[in-house]
C-alpha cells in the first residue's frame, strides 16, 4: 500500500510538472511569435488535462479571447472531409477505387480514370483551382462559378500522371465535394453536419469563409517577417471549395473531434485507420513528403524519432495531432497565420510524451 501511495505521489508530481510546462510553453510561444490570440488543449485518455485561452480575439478593439470564440481552421477541414468521405465508403455508397467519371460529367479524357482514392490523397495530378496567393491578398481562383469549374480547369495541363506523385492543391477535394453531393443528394456542408459534426455534438462548428459573418469568430492576422502583425482576411472560398478549408469551430469542439477519432465514434477502427495511413503511389511506394512525414486521406502522418502521430493543420495557424501510442491529443488554435503549427504542437506535447 505504501509503495502504491509513493508511486501515486510521484505520478501526480510529474503530471503537475507536465501541466505547468505546457502552460509556460504556450505563453512563451505567444511572446516568441507575437501571436495575438491562442487557445490550446492537451487531452490524455480522452480527458482534458490542460487547456487555456490567451490573448486577443481582436487586437484593434482589444477584445479578449474566450471559450466562446471560434476559429477558422482552414485546411484542418481536410481531415474532417477525409472522415466524412470514409463514412460513405464504410456504408457502401462510395468506393476508393471508383473512377470519378462515374459521378462527374463533362470530364476531359485524362481525368476519367482518376479514382476517389487519388482525390482524397491529393495524388490526382489535377491542376490547382487556386491561381495565386499573395501574402495579405485574397486568394485568386481559376473560377468561382461551379458551373464553369471543370471546363476552366480542363484548359490547364495536368501536374503529373494520376498516382505518380503528390501535390497540395484545392482541386481534388473540391471535386470530391461534388461527388459527395451526387451520392448523398445533400450539399457537402449539410452532409458533414449530419455525418460528423452532429454525432459528435460539435455545436460551435459552422461553415463560412471571410466573406460570411460568423458569430464569435476571431479576427485573423498575418505575421510579417519582422514579427509585426497585419490584417489577414484573405481566405475566401467559393462554395465548391469548402471541403478544403471552410470550417470554423471552437476549442471544445476540436476536443470532441479528437476524442471522436480516438474512440471510433464515427467509423469502425479498421476503416478509420485507412484515413491516416500513408498513401501508396502507383509504384507501391509510400507517399512521403519528407523524412518521417507522409500524407494519407486529408491527414498528415508523422513518425519522428519513434513518436507516431497523425493530424492536420491549416492556414499556418491551427491544427491538431493525435499520438495514438501515447493516448494523447494536442490541439492548437491561433489567429495568427505564419507559424509552424506542427512544430509548436510538438513543443506543447513534449512534457507529456514518452520517447522510446
TrEMBL record:
It is an enzyme of class 3 (hydrolase). Residues 28-338 form the Beta-lactamase-related domain. Its EC number is 3.-.-.-. Residues 1-20 form the signal peptide. It comes from Pontibacter locisalis. It comes from the Bacteria. SUPFAM superfamilies: beta-lactamase/transpeptidase-like (SSF56601). Keywords: Hydrolase, Signal. This is Serine hydrolase domain-containing protein. Pfam families: Beta-lactamase. The keyword Signal applies. PANTHER family: BETA-LACTAMASE-RELATED. GO terms for molecular function: hydrolase activity. The keyword Translocase does not apply. InterPro entries: Beta-lactam-related, Beta-lactam/transpept-like, Diverse_Enzym_Activities.
